[in-house]
Write a structure and sequence with these properties.
The structure is a homodimer of 227-residue chains. The relative contact order of chain A is 0.14. Chain A has nine helices and three strands, in the order H-E-H-H-E-E-H-H-H-H-H-H. In chain A, strands 1-3-2 form a three-stranded antiparallel β-sheet. By secondary structure, chain A is mainly alpha-helical. In chain A, helix 6 packs antiparallel against helix 7 and helix 8 runs antiparallel to helix 9. The radius of gyration of chain A is 18 Å and the shape is globular. Chains A and B meet through helix 3, helix 4 and helix 7 of A and helix 3, helix 4 and helix 7 of B. The first copy, chain A, binds a DNA duplex (30 and 30 nucleotides) through helix 3.
Chain lengths: 227, 227
Amino acid sequence: MTEHPNLMRQAITASDRVLFEIQRAIVEGSIPAGSKISEPEFARRFNVSRAPLREALARLERCHLIERTPNAGVRVVTLTPEGLISLYQIREELEGLACRLAATQMPQAEIAELAALLDQHLSTQRVREGESYYQEAGDLDFHYRVILGSKNPYLINMLCDELYYLVRMYRVQMGMNGPRVSRAFDEHKAILNAIANRDGELADLLMRRHISASRHNIEQQLQAERT
Amino acid sequence: MTEHPNLMRQAITASDRVLFEIQRAIVEGSIPAGSKISEPEFARRFNVSRAPLREALARLERCHLIERTPNAGVRVVTLTPEGLISLYQIREELEGLACRLAATQMPQAEIAELAALLDQHLSTQRVREGESYYQEAGDLDFHYRVILGSKNPYLINMLCDELYYLVRMYRVQMGMNGPRVSRAFDEHKAILNAIANRDGELADLLMRRHISASRHNIEQQLQAERT
DNA sequence: ATCTTCAAATCTGTCGACACCTGTCGATCC
DNA sequence: GGATCGACAGGTGTCGACAGATTTGAAGAT
């Protein structure tokens, strides 16, 4: 229930370490989507036995990054337009809920921290205009904080532990874009304002629109690649 | 991604079998909430080695039925009012979404099957009025079918594999009640009608109300026990 | 009597090995 | 020539055992 990547992400056990490495490799595409994973091979590659590797694989399955078929084997997921839509449908609902809850559950101090994070994003964004840093880390970190602010453990687990890496995988491997960055920042700011004003309904609505826009963006990107 | 309990639930491997047994025992309370699970002890009890047991435990953690603390051990979750509220908040959103999707994604044949299921529930309900059969299996099976009808694999996984058993655990261990049964049946029928009419918005709204009412019901039950 | 300290006991994480299953390739038969 | 069948290789599921960590409990000190 408590992993909270990007923040405290120290591997305490061997299976943790392997999990983080494989997770990262899959998200970044070093391990190609759709490829098969052989347990003995990966166990050798990461210098562990099959036991911790299998535990890591079990957790990767939880993140929807791999798929197991009994007695057959493990495959990295394949990214599809349908999968992207299904994923974002859920994000809209759950992150909308997260905003509504955060508007009542986040203490002032946490809201202030989030505002500071946004300011920091702004400066980083201006410096490295066009780079993918913002979209890859910053955008997701904002969402991350809002979700944590909901204080709903199941919601946090689902979004931050189970769906987070798959979302990143889609964004990284679909290739990230430029022009939406500044607009996304404004949308984040509006959402934060709604939360600060304790207006859960508005924050919910804005977040749904924000995610919907992001989905349309990726869908366009995807359709452009298809030509 | 494809377990689909209650329907095709045949244990293909040893860890499957152990998973089902422990899952059932936890939901029914045979293994008390909050109790610690010793891996060697349970391995002996179910006549398996620790390897398949650990895999079963990993999957139980996915269902939020147990909690692991590194290097410490495994404990069955404890049921709390806060946990119940958090759980139902998510159910409202996700099952609402499921209804909206089902209204456009369910083929006519599947809707007809669901209608038949409801009729069957009606007869069973009239025969064994007051028994808990309806609430425990029938009600959840209706929800189950609607979720499957959404055709969204992540949604199906989350609700049917990850949250389903925890919901059942709350309902079973909080003790199930009588008077809401017939009202719940009418609500199911209304939801089905909305789906059959391809009115996703209405189905969404009705499902949210239905789950909200169910939550209030359990909360009352819980508050009544506290006196 | 209470708190501290330490050691035994237990448990978790990890390892290497074995049985059964799966998928493949080649041989045989129609 | 195509299809069926059977051996082979590789892999997954499972087992028993060991090392490090943790909790328990008792002994000792204050």
